[in-house]
Design brief:
The complex is a heterodimer of chains A (321) and B (306). Chain A is mainly α. Chain A has 16 helices and two strands. Chain A has two domains: 2-75, no CATH class; 79-314, MetI-like (MetI-like fold). Chain A has helices at 2-10, 15-29, 31-49, 77-83, 86-118, 123-134, 141-152, 157-164, 178-206, 210-218, 223-234, 236-248, 256-261, 267-270, 273-283, 287-314; strands at residues 60-61, 72-73. In chain A, strands 1-2 form a two-stranded antiparallel sheet. Chain B has 16 helices and no strands. With 306 residues, chain B is an all-alpha fold. In chain B, helix 5 (78-109) packs across helix 8. Classes of the chains: A mainly alpha (321), B mainly alpha (306). At the A-B interface, helix 2, helix 3, helix 5, helix 6 and helix 7 of A face helix 1, helix 2, helix 5, helix 6 and helix 7 of B.
């Protein structure tokens, strides 16, 4: 009502000042809503926007002891340093590799689990499977890495199983070999999150009209045909939204598991951009270089996010932005 | 049913005596074993004698039963302190986060609110643009001077944008008439939020509270980064993380059982670590099955475009 009055008023009065006046009057009337939200705006201003200011130090030779603008400007020197360093390039490669593995596994396994769980008619059994598979999601990475070390060491269950199946003839040092690291991270993620990530697909499948399945049965579709032509298309929009979201977060290949599980011998395979930044920034005190690494990561994330969104729009899918 | 129809149906796996349900159930049981075995093995290890555990090969049941690991960890008073710190941070963080998030979601769900668009955009951008580890570290450590205080656990984690969007979507889905009629009766926004909307959002509040509480309970990195030098502020997960660092070496140095037995007393880090794992995971393990019905609400609301 109030808004309607103001818009008509604007046509024959001094529009700009009236609009301004109207804004402050409305804000005063909505002061309780403002009290609920403006403090949080200031909070994110401090914790999310203010640190972006720190990005300028990536273009300086920053020494925390000096006042900010007395540091020397060096242009892109820190970025050049990064890209001339094999260690950083390996960190970029590792981040992409593990992120890619996690992205694919993170869709394939939960969707398969949801498809097969959806076929279970005994409700009690279904719920038991769900409760059990959600369990690892609630364990911390510290615990999961501890368990993984126990399972994977030379006398651990994995080696014993492989030995007894005669797939190997002496224990494999899974955690001490770089070439296993990415895949271990991938499979441990599956162990931890597969059940949890299937929740959303199951919810989408249970929303599918049962008449569709009945019609398909009449047409002679078997179980797998029904999965392929009804269940899978039924979760398509959920899948697309999650895909775009996950591409935006692709550079977050995980931090804790690599940090906790990666030992020095496998560092060439385990170190990600975040760990690189942490090492150079906090341990070695080379803030400018570490911040430059962080900027690189953020810029790539934003580029991935916007292109995924653009592609989705082109394909006529729902978008996030 | 004619023979031909029967044959066709059989071919499609629709025949009444299809073996699919059994194969499927067997697969699910295998999956449960795959999920539970590592967890139960840890429990078994924690009740096993330390020296004996080094021989390896313990399955789902302790081979030489011993409570020694639990006795050892509970003799050290640091674990009581860590429990206290972990519980306090989880409780305070959860309460503050849930109240602030739902208050903000309510304000941003009101279509007539003039700052709605501006604040929402400012918040959503933070989901994708992140200054990164080091600038945040410098803010908390240098600018705000929060390191070596309890508040470093609370203040940087008051709010999560993702949870706000979940909650806001849920509130927008509630019937408008609820708010309208209360407004006509002259109710202010705080009253509306606290007496009318908040009670209706309890399913989402439960989900968000669970997410925040699990995150708080399981976090160790903030302790590692800011409070490592202050033993009184160590959390349970951080204690465990320190044990992880010390057991890693012995597990990977490929030492023989004899070596290992020689340089340990009665308990070894492996069983101690298992005991701390059990102690620190038990509270969440006891709670989550009862909150299961809320997960679906929280997760499916979240996947809808905000």
């Amino acid at each position: 009502m109030r808004r309607a009055k103001a818009t008509t008023g604007r046509t024959h009065m001094n529009g700009a000042s009236l609009k301004k006046n109207f804004f402050w009057r409305t804000l005063w009337q909505q002061r309780q809503l403002a009290l609920m939200s403006v403090p949080m705006l200031l909070y994110i201003g401090l914790f999310n926007y203010f640190p972006l200011w720190g990005w300028i130090t990536a273009f300086m030779d920053y020494k925390p002891a000096l006042p900010l603008f007395q540091n020397e400007w060096v242009g892109l020197k820190n970025f050049q340093w990064l890209f001339s360093r094999p260690e950083f390039l390996r960190a970029v490669r590792n981040t992409f590799a593990m992120a890619g593995i996690n992205l694919v596994f993170g869709f394939v396994f939960p969707i398969l689990l949801a498809l097969f769980l959806h076929e279970i008619r005994t409700l009690r059994f279904k719920r038991t499977v769900q409760t059990v598979t959600y369990l690892p999601h609630f364990l911390s990475w510290v615990i999961v890495v501890g368990i993984a070390q126990t399972m994977l060491n030379s006398t651990g269950a994995v080696n014993q199983l492989l030995l007894s199946l005669r797939l190997i003839d002496r224990p494999v040092f899974f955690l001490g070999e770089g070439r296993y690291f990415w895949w271990l991270v991938g499979f441990i993620h599956v162990w931890k999150e597969c059940g949890w990530n299937s929740i959303i697909y199951l919810a989408a499948m249970s929303a599918i009209d049962p008449a569709l399945y009945e019609a398909a049965e009449m047409d002679g579709a078997g179980r797998f045909k029904k999965m392929r032509y009804i269940s899978l298309p039924g979760i398509r929009s959920t899948f697309m939204v999650l895909l775009i979201m996950n591409i935006g977060y692709l550079m977050e290949a995980g931090f804790e598991i690599q940090y906790l599980m990666g030992q020095n011998i496998v560092m060439d395979w385990s170190q990600t951009i975040d760990i690189f930044a942490l090492k150079y920034g906090i341990t070695k005190g080379q803030y400018s270089r570490a911040i430059a690494a962080g900027i690189f990561k953020s810029v790539v994330s934003i580029a991935l996010m916007t292109s995924a969104n653009f592609a989705a729009k082109r394909l006529g899918e729902d978008t996030l932005l | 049913m004619t023979d031909r129809a029967l044959v066709r149906k059989k071919g499609n796996g629709l025949h009444r005596r299809s073996i699919f349900p059994y194969v499927n159930a067997a697969g699910m049981i295998l999956l449960m074993v795959f999920t539970l075995y590592p967890v139960l093995n840890t429990v078994a290890l924690s009740f096993n004698d330390g020296t004996d555990a080094l021989r390896g090969g313990i399955g789902l049941w302790p081979r030489v039963f011993s409570m020694k690991s639990y006795e050892t960890i509970f003799q050290d008073e640091i674990i009581y302190n860590a429990f206290f710190i972990t519980i306090s941070r989880t409780f305070i963080q959860t309460v503050l986060n849930v109240v602030l998030t739902s208050m903000l979601s309510f304000a941003l769900s009101r279509r007539e609110y003039v700052l709605r668009k501006f604040i929402t955009t400012a918040l959503v951008i933070t989901m994708y643009v992140n200054a990164g580890l080091i600038p945040n570290y410098l803010l908390i450590q240098r600018t705000l001077g929060l390191s070596k205080t309890f508040w470093v656990y609370i203040i940087p984690t008051l709010f999560s944008c993702f949870n706000m969007i979940v909650m806001r979507t849920y509130i927008i889905g509630l019937p408008d008439a609820l708010v309208e009629s209360a407004r006509i009766d002259g109710a202010g926004d705080f009253y509306l939020f606290w007496r009318i909307i908040f009670p209706l959002t309890l399913p989402v509040v439960a989900t968000i509270a669970l997410f925040v509480a699990v995150g708080a309970w399981n976090s160790w990195f903030d302790t590692h980064l800011y409070n490592a030098g202050k033993v009184r502020l160590h959390t349970l997960q951080y204690l465990l993380k320190m044990k992880l660092a010390t057991t890693t070496n012995s597990a990977n140095a490929a030492m023989t059982t004899a070596d290992a037995a020689a340089n340990t007393t009665l308990t070894t880090p492996v069983t101690i670590r298992a005991a701390i794992t059990v102690v620190s995971a038990a509270p969440i393990m006891a709670i989550y099955p009862f909150l299961q019905r809320y997960f679906v609400v929280g997760l499916s609301v979240g996947s809808i475009k905000g």
